[in-house]
């Protein structure tokens, strides 16, 4: 693809969400896993969703959620997509056909055929989070491992992305979308305006060269 979307994840402040959207973010990730340092209560999530809802797609991020929890937060916040980042049963994507981003933890056996289990998913996010950790680690990996995957669904790249390596990561992976979190932070959940601007500049430069 010649134009790549950006998801800014782990957003915890209204001002960060607004800046991300102004810079061109197509997706804003709101983390609802209690084990994350970027966890959002509903009280904290509502102002963010109100500020940027309709200007970018709001993505709720969970680890092994219940269907009821996802549905309740989706109604209150008008969430567009739901990212499942744990060990969910593949049938969980059928709860919300065409609205689930299924996170795939890149292990030694990565095959296009394994993605067929998620036929109702909106798309896939590939990350290399170690056992017991679910994103936001800042750890990079061999992004070329997902190059050439056979899927018609959007492919989102995550894991250790930052201004200094996102262009190279896109080139190596061929991903349609990139997901940035800790690589543009000064502390968990606190985005750095300068790093955000640099990140989007690098992504735009890749699009210009394509």
Low-pLDDT windows of residues: none
- Count of separate structural domains: 1
* Main sheet summary: 8 strands, parallel, barrel
Helical region count? 5
Cα-based radius of gyration, to the nearest Å: 16 Å
Give the overall average pLDDT. Answer: 89
How is the CATH topology named?
TIM Barrel
Query: By CATH's scheme, which homologous superfamily applies?
Result: Aldolase class I
CATH class: Alpha Beta
Quote the beta fraction: 15-25%
Overall outline? globular
Number of strands: 10
Task: Give me the CATH architecture, please.
Answer: Alpha-Beta Barrel
Q: Order of SSEs, N→C? A: EHEHEHEEEEHEEEH
* Overall SS class: alpha/beta
User: Approximately how much helix is present in the residues?
Assistant: 25-40%
Distance between the termini: 8 Å
Enumerate the strands of the largest sheet in spatial order, edge to edge or round the barrel.
1-2-3-4-5-6-7-8
